[in-house]
Design a protein that fits this description.
Blueprint (H helix, E strand, L loop, with lengths): L13 E11 L5 E11 L3 E5 L6 H8 L7 E6 L2 E2 L4 H6 L1 E4 L11 H11 L6 H10 L15 H13 L5 E5 L7 H16 L3 E5 L3 H7 L2 E6 L2 E7 H8 L1 E8 L15 E4 L4 E7 L7 H10 L4 E8 L2 H12 L1
Parallel strand pairs: 3-8, 3-9, 6-7, 7-8
Antiparallel strand pairs: 1-2, 1-4, 4-5, 9-10, 11-13, 11-14, 12-13
Length: 319
């Protein structure tokens, strides 16, 4: 049965295992420095990093496009050097660039892509893929006539034509509008639900926060963090309680100096910061002490640190 149709629960089994991976170019530039990383079967893994961090180099090596200087990559049980063809057949790659066979039809380019990996023709599988990606009605259209969003869907269809168990998406929604971005997220979720492991690189932190099970951060060729998204948010996330005061304060009262408070908006908003993962927030104590000081408020709201803020702080720490 095709990987598109399979339903496989996520496990802790590694479907991609990377050990000691380095890449040094002839000019001496070290793009990757000893990468160790496991991608779990059935998960959506987001690889984050600023431009030049090594994201595309890492994906290119795993996919067999670029040779590593040292190290090993095993994809679904096959070494990507010793068993290149078998390893590569397990991987689908959707590049960032919209390179497509402009004069070919959607059906022809997907069928041809399947044949490149030595798979026998399977019209039923190609039909399932095109239907899943809302491309069936466009199957006889030349790719040059499609919109940018549809072309991206064709790239995914081509990558899935040979039934890979692993799908790499390099900046899958770069340059598309917000509505199409959400459509693409739905496509990715469906693929994962049907058994495909998804690894995506993105500079849209919102994308990783919305979809990923785990997040890896790469900086200057090194993996500086790999964490379950929810655990990361709890570990590094902070919450804020903003109280809109009835009367502005010139300064925080001395009696409240031991609390993590800050005045904003010319003293009209009092901000209290607390640990998002802590058992006790201290909000009840804060409100009681505010009442004791005769400080009233007419509105309050809470907010939580976003993944983007966490990412920026991590990068700054390592810069």
């Amino acid at each position: 049965m095709s990987a598109v149709l399979q339903t496989a629960p996520r496990t802790d089994e590694a479907i991609v295992s990377i050990r000691g991976l380095t890449k040094t170019y002839a000019n001496g530039f070290s793009a990757l420095k000893g990468i160790d990383l496991d991608i779990r079967r059935g998960e959506i893994f987001a690889l984050l990093g600023p431009n030049g961090a090594g994201k595309t180099t890492l994906i290119s090596i795993v996919c067999g496009i670029v040779n590593a200087s040292t190290g090993q990559v095993v994809a679904d049980g096959f070494d990507n050097v010793a068993d290149f063809r078998k390893a590569r057949a397990r991987i689908g790659l959707v590049p960032q660039e919209l390179h497509t066979d402009a004069f070919e039809t959607v059906w022809a380019t997907c069928s041809f892509s399947r044949g490149l990996f030595g798979f026998k023709p399977d019209p039923a599988h190609i039909e399932r893929v095109l239907r899943d990606l809302s491309l069936w009605d466009k199957r006889n259209d030349r790719i040059m006539t499609l919109s940018g969003g549809m072309k991206r869907r064709v790239l995914i269809a081509k990558a899935l034509a040979h039934e890979p168990s692993i799908l790499f998406l390099d900046e899958p929604t770069a340059g598309v509008d917000v509505e199409l971005r959400h459509d693409m997220w739905n496509v990715v979720r469906k693929l994962r639900e049907r058994g495909t492991t998804i690894i995506l690189t993105t500079h849209y932190i919102e994308e990783a926060e919305e979809m990923a099970d785990r997040v890896g951060v790469i900086l200057k060729g090194e993996i500086i963090l790999v964490e379950d998204k929810t655990t990361l948010m709890k570990k590094l996330g902070k919450r804020e309680l903003a109280l809109h005061l009835n009367e502005p304060l010139a300064a925080i009262p001395v009696a409240l100096a031991d609390l993590n408070l800050e005045l904003q908006d010319s003293g009209s908003v009092l901000v209290y910061r607390f640990d998002a993962g802590g058992e006790a927030t201290g909000i009840s104590r804060l409100l009681n002490r505010l009442g004791g000081e005769g400080i009233g408020f007419h509105d309050l709201k809470t907010s939580e640190t976003s993944l983007e803020e966490i990412f920026v702080s991590l990068v700054k720490e390592r810069a």
